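Subgroup meeting minutes
Present: P.N., E.W., G.H.
Scribe: E.W.

1. P.N. recapped why we're keeping a running log of single-chain structure predictions: easier to compare across weeks, and new members can see raw inputs and outputs side by side.
2. G.H. added today's entry (229 aa).
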Amino acid sequence: METIPYPRQHIQQAIQQRNLEELLHTAAAIHGHYCTGLAMGVVAGRELVSRIGASADGLEDLLVITETNNCASDGVQVVTGCTFGNNGLIFRETGKIAFTIVNRGKAAFRIVVRPDAREFLRTKYAEFSDSYQKVIVNQSRDEATVEEFKIHGYHKAMVTIKQPFEQLFTIQKTEIPDLPDFAKATETVICSMCQEPVMENHTVEINQDFVCFSCSNSEIRELNGNGMK
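Output recorded in log:
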């Protein structure tokens, strides 16, 4: 049988070598910038994968439940290999920076940020706080301010990954009784009104025709920066 390269080999090596800096750079490539949240996700993801003792192949044996859609979730997706696109990431909106990893039929671990982690990290690199306030809270987006934010974000992220895990998170073994089944293959149909291809399970039947949610004025839920709406 033909042998093909494992596409996550460099990530797996970085996990085994505890090379958090390499994992952070890889995560930043999809996140777009460096920040505390991304670094926290990298730290959490690396610990989860190490505890579970399994590697993701994108076939839904390994799953992650994220309770937030903030920056940390990008770090966790990259390191664990569980993403929305491969059906390995489940979003359960509690608003907590918490992640659970589970290997179907085996162990599960939940990791949650410590209540004092934010203040602890602020003492390690206070300069990022002012930039965060300007760019994220006050939405000041002039070029110089944003560039300063990125510089401080990089240094704060580097500081974050060097902190003891126990100062940032708690982790415990858990059970997940309500895991979804493996995703089913869904037929693609053509909406009878707009003529655009659409997944059959995202249509309504009108006069024996498939009609997409947009054309049928059905409720369409949206996940954005403010959560699931």
